[in-house]
Amino acid sequence: MYITANRPPGRALLRSVPANVLALGMVSMVTDISAEMVTAVLPLYLVLALGLNPLQVGMLDGLHFGVTALVRLAGAHASDRWRHRKLVAASGYGISALAKLGLLLAGTSVGALGAVITADRAGKGLRTAPRDAMISSSTPPDRLGQAFGVHRAMDTLGALLGPLAAFGVLAATGGSYDAVFMTSFCVAALGLVLLALYVRDPRTTLAAEPPRIGTAVRAIVGDPAFRRICAVTILLSLVTVSDFFVYLLLQKQLAMTPGLFPLLPLGTAAVYLLLAVPLGRLADRRGRVGVFLGGHVTLFAAYLLLAGAATGIALLIVVLVLHGTFYAATDGVLMSAAGPLLPEALLTSGMAVLQTAQALARLGSSVAFGALWTAWDARTGLLVMAGGLALSLLAARKVIL
Amino acid sequence: MKRALVLAASIVALASVAITYAVLASADPSPAGAALDTTRSGQLLFLDAGGRVAAVPSDDPGAARTVGDLKCRRFHSSGGTAVCLAAEVRGGLPRTSALILDSELRETNRLNLAGVPSRARVSPSGRMVAWTVFVTGESYNATGFSTWTGILDTRTGYPIVNIETIPLYIDGRRHHAADVNFWGVTFAADDNRFYATVSTRGRTYLVEGDYAKWEARTLRNNVECPSLSPDGTRLAFKKRVSPSAAEPWRLHVLDLVTMRETPLAETASVDDQAQWLSDSEVAYARPGAAGGSGIWAVPADGSGSPRLLIPAASSPSMPIRVDGP
Fold first, then answer.
1. CB-CB neighbors (< 8 A) of A269 in chain B
2. Nearest-CA neighbor of A262 among A170, A326, A167, A379?
């Protein structure tokens, strides 16, 4: 059934990836085009069209976090409980799609905008864990890394195309944000159609009894291997500097003209896109935890370079390549490492727990780095984080390898 | 096969919705705009709701507008020079640019920026141009926010795209930090001295800068977006009066001799760099209830009450000042 050649190139690679994973990849790609269309224009819209101040923009952005975490966990539990991952994922995609229409209706009310943006993020929180669980269940265990790599590459392609689509619509309509939101809604609806038509929920071994919350928690947290991977993820995420700071530091270090700033995330995404599949395959062959930790070593190298005295175009390229490699080696790979540790009946809940733990730790790191930056300066902050990363990596090796 | 048909039908239906909506929502290709001359005296320039540069007589701002072709996000004009911050798509990428314009709003220079246009200002003589754009990251903390402020000397054509490298002295001591952000520059009549806001380590300060010596010194806390009065004795500014994001600022005037602050009669929160209409009145954009903003004016001494000058408008400027005695 599955081709077992060692290195299936090109078309053979596509054939070796389960159709369901490709379908989920298409859904994610289309949904990410829709999501990134809005993300790309939202600050401009809020500040210039609606006249909100930057503080209010920041507040809208910070609102969603707690809600997303709760919705993610509750949704994942419901998805395992009712044994219907596709339905929960679909409601997540659906809520986010409707939120795009909500932007049209919210007008300038900061409260309504906050509610709409929160609903959008909640939809994202709701769909991620059941989606990753379906990828995991659709794929033979020895190919999980590759499957997640293909999915994340498609996802990233969507993220790269979204801003182009948004600014294309703005240019074509003479600056109509409403048209961007409506187009984004239509693209999101297409994602939902693709999900409904082409994605199957491949649950093979249904639990005899739907898991109750108490038993679920005990089963997930009680598993020592899964507990270790959660601990390692939290430890490493606590010392991961958020992307925005990485780009800001690069810009400052290189005294780069601000006009080039929007290109920096594109550099990371392009490297991520290129390396997601090869590193996923490497993870399958050489061990997923090893590649996951290796990804954090590239991040460590990026921090040292950023904190160092190097300047020039070489620094820029090397840091972006390291940063993109970090994502390619960790994002999907983590899920492919965690999947096999979880009982099928609790796959979604387990993934949601891991993703929530990671998001919480990243929030902590963002606040900590912000405080370091303000109290001392960026370079000290970066060196502290790099030191923390080195210690965390050493500890992680002990715990998990 | 059936799935493919449903998919094809969905694509056609959704594409039709998106395209129909986009066509209906498209801004009408508005009629060719009128010619504007920023050196004509007695006019107020501003951006209308669609972002076009427009003019009204300053003694009758309710009169019919003259609307030009140029579209901007922020605009300012003085002494025969204008600056227009524009967000546009070029080469498939979103760009923010500062367009430097002559008295007939023809482009003489263009600087590539990034982020959301925030402030634009031309010195009274028209020689010095300054602007601010900002970007935000995940903003659960205040540091997820960065501004880039630039200055262009139109006489030499030399731009400084990011002034944050200027040697900064806080309370007389040289300050080194990477988290320095500048915004809201206003130049004095000598085209050398300027005022601006700087934020570092979680605090904001008013700085006085010297362009030729290239250094800046803090004067005071909690002064944002200063705007120097025509007689050069006072700064109109927004002061942070509440930690909430809903109503954070109030317009004040600072007397540079006595260093005394006076709150103005406008009680709504204003997020703008004020424009002096005369030595006794300032104008500013105030967000409206239904989005967008209107240009309001209020006496500069704390008396009186705000009046609506131009509805559905922003970025006021008074390119040629007629100051009575």
1. none
2. A167
- What pLDDT, on a 0 to 100 scale, did the predictor assign at position B180? 87
Q: Tell me whether residues B246 and A110 touch, CB distance under 8 A.
A: yes
User: Least CB-CB distance to B291: which of A107, A175, A242?
Assistant: A107
Question: pLDDT of A310-358, one tens digit each?
Answer: 778 888 999 999 999 999 999 999 999 999 999 888 999 999 999 999 9
B211 neighbors B192 (Cβ within 8 angstroms)? yes
The three-point CA angle B266-B313-A103 to 5° equals 95
Tokens of B17: 């919705």
Distance CA B284, CA B237 (A): 11
Per DSSP bridges, beta strands B215-221 and B168-170 are parallel
Chain A nearest CA to B246, separation (Å): 7
DSSP string, A298-316: HHHHHHHHHHSS--SHHHH
**For chain B, what percent of residues have pLDDT higher than 70?**
92
| Cβ atoms of B149 and B111 closer than 8 Å | no
Cβ–Cβ contact A19 with B under 8 A: no
Q: Environment class of residue A31 by beta-carbon count within 10 Å: exposed (0-12), middle (13-18) or buried (19+)?
A: buried
> pLDDT band at residue A363, thresholds of 50, 70 and 90?
confident
In this complex, do B22 and A172 lie within 8 Å of one another by their Cβ atoms? yes
Is B315 in contact with B47 (CB distance < 8 Å)? Answer: yes
- Residue range B7-61, pLDDT digits in tens: 999 999 999 999 999 999 887 666 788 899 999 989 999 999 888 999 999 999 9
CATH of A19-142+162-200, one of 3.20.20.30, 1.20.1250.20, 3.40.630.10, 3.40.630.30: 1.20.1250.20
CA A26 to chain centre: 16
d(CA A113, CA A115): 5
Q: What is B34-317's CATH superfamily?
A: TolB, C-terminal domain (2.120.10.30)
Residue A296 phi, psi (nearest 5): -70, -25
pLDDT at A1 over 50: no
DSSP state of B92: T
Superfamily of domain A220-401: MFS general substrate transporter like domains (1.20.1250.20)
Cα(B256)–Cα(B260) distance, rounded to whole angstroms? 8
Whether A349 and A215 have beta carbons less than 8 Å apart is answered as no
- Residue ranges covered by each domain of chain B: 34-317
Residue B42 contacts A where some CB pair is shorter than 8 Å: no
CA of B163 to nearest chain A CA: how many angstroms apart?
11
Angstroms from A254 CA to nearest CA on chain B: 12
ipTM of the complex: 0.83
Helix (H, G, I), strand (E, B) or coil at A118: helix
CB of B164 within 8 A of CB of B180?
yes
Give the contacts of B168 (CB within 8 A, at least 6 positions apart): B174, B175, B180, B198, B200, B207, B215, B216, B217, B218
Residues 6+ apart with CB under 8 A from A136: A144, A335, A336, A339, A340, A347, A351
- CATH 1.20.1250.20 domain range(s) in chain A: 19-142+162-200, 220-401
Report CA dihedral (B193, B196, B198, B204) to the nearest 10 degrees: 120
- CB atoms < 10 A from the CB of B211, how many? 23
